[in-house]
What does this fold into?
Amino acid sequence: MYKSYSMELAGRTLTVDVNRVAAQANGAAFMHYGETTVLSTATASEKPREGIDFFPLSVEYEEKLYSVGKIPGGFNKREGKASENAILTSRVIDRPMRPLFPKDYRNDVTLNNLVMSVDPDCSPELTAMLGSAIATAISDIPFDGPTSSTQVGMIDGELIFNPTSAQKAVSDLQLTVASTREKVIMIEAGANEVPEAKMIEAIFAAHELNQEVIRFIDKIVAECGKEKHTYTSCAIPEELFAAIKEIVTPEQMEVAVFTDHKQTREANISAIKDKLAEAFADKEEWLGLIDEAVYQYQKKTVRKMILKDHKRPDGRAIDQIRPLAAEIDLIPRVHGSAMFTRGQTQICTVTTLAPLSEAQRIDGLDEMETSKRYMHQYNFPSYSVGETKPSRGPGRREIGHGALAERALIPVLPSVEEFPYAIRTVSETFESNGSTSQASICASSMSLMSAGVPIKKAVAGISCGLVTGETDDDYLVLTDIQGLEDFFGDMDFKVAGTHEGITAIQMDIKIHGLTRPIIEEAIARTREARMHILDEVMAHAIAEPRNEVGKYAPKIIQIQIDPQKIGDVVGQRGKTINTIIEQTGVKIDITDDGAVSICGTDKKEMDRAVEMIRIITTDFEAGQIFVGKVISIKEFGAFLEFAPGKEGMVHISKIAKERINHVEDVLTLGDMVKVVCLGKDKMGRISFSMKDVERTEKEQQKKSEQQAADAEHLD
It folds into this structure.
């Protein structure tokens, strides 16, 4: 018989059904938040996976389109590969939970979240985060939880917990905080330049709410939780460590890792492994453990050097940033480019501008976001770390890093009205030794400015690390961690922002949470470093956006037409608009409110397209002067086309001042002629005159001069 548990969470009811469905999973929580329904399950293999030196955790977030009443597109009518949102949600579920599994646990574990219905007021992503934590906590899988997660928004300076979809649309903050009973274990944020103090307030307000949810989960675990199963430990035998230290002393290991050159350090470690393999040639049971043992030996050495001796592997001070460099325009012909280098981390970002019609369409569960005008993508090829392997497309890490940079830059982008372009930035990792995601933010900010995108402010990113001791107050925060400090440290705290405030945060940790002093110091340290990068490095490469887009970038002219005239511009089955495009070579986008964007590289042809649209959408009035093309000749006159789909007639009596007997005596097909509108004839057709153009132009010139004189007299 199943049990149901409920609590009020941010003004809505959260209900958890246990033992109702998925009974064969190690743990299952049937989650209901409002009318959002998610099935969260946790399963583990019976035995450890052989031949691995990591914990094989998989997190899945399955978006079913039936949850929002949609049928998938395409021929198969079936959900395909995970969307970007699903991948990012899987990562945000993974990050707070992974550190709470035993470090020597090698059994495969899968956390699956099936989204079955979506209430716009109750986030399915948050529901899945809570569901995974509950399913794992009540299962027999070893897990030092539970965790709880809260989303925070901010409208007019007021914090809002677990905001609705409508509130998110106008919020200046999108923050997710995960907590254990005592500490904050994960932070993910996008923000409109939120000050550091306000961000800290929001983080710990969410942490307090998380404690209420954890008490609720504790009650469920107490009544429904299974006894945790025993497992085969994959820890390195202590006698192996002792034998290694006899061959490679701690002082020798310190010399091996104490260098700022990644290749040198790797060569030193490789030599140590070869030495150990030779020494243990007769101990076959130890040979397969050498890599993991040396890794842990390095880790202990680096952590001791940093925490006790305040020595970093590359010799820097605790708060010192690696050597920095920035430049722009290194790639010819692209719309914008910039490169940012921090030590052995180097990113080149290329910006591409296009009409709004090339914005990315999104087919997902969020009804409010159906397209994406700004796209940031991040690539991490194997050569950037000196390795060789085939490219298989972006993985979850690459998608996550791209999304983080995108989130950091969105707050400074111009509005569509200010800059009617779709924008794509692609960050190519040339070299990697720590914090490439933050380098991509710096490079992208400069690349956008070099492309002439009028961003409001420059954005920079930096990462802090952490090494902890035995107690909460025994720790050291490191500014600008390199790869080794990331691998062997306890935290990767990434913060991006402007001079005014934070635009994005992503925090990954390997321990059971952070105290408030650590978080406050990390945020303060990243602000100090961010100011240095913005003022002393990026500003010297490019201080502000260029005044116009580059030579090879498309140009866009925006005009407004009467929405009632959209059909005239488009024409039957798109005939009129396609004719304009064919004749001028431009691209044209029209929105439902009558905003027309004309995109091209030839200013003359763009102006011609604008004139065609102006003629099509203008009601002809007597006295207007046009240039038209002769498309048909009759005995009584000639028909002229002034724009696709817009025609009028010049009667034979209005062609020349003198009498003519045949239209062909003056006009031939294809002639371009100037005419003045006379209004409509008896048959309702637009009537024009060629012979009255000169007189009309003189009258209009005289009238214009008189108006100018009258205005000058009034002044």
User: Anything to note?
Assistant: The radius of gyration is 33 Å. The first strand starts at residue 3 and ends at 9. The chain has five domains: 3-146+206-221, 238-307, 324-541, 554-618, 621-715.
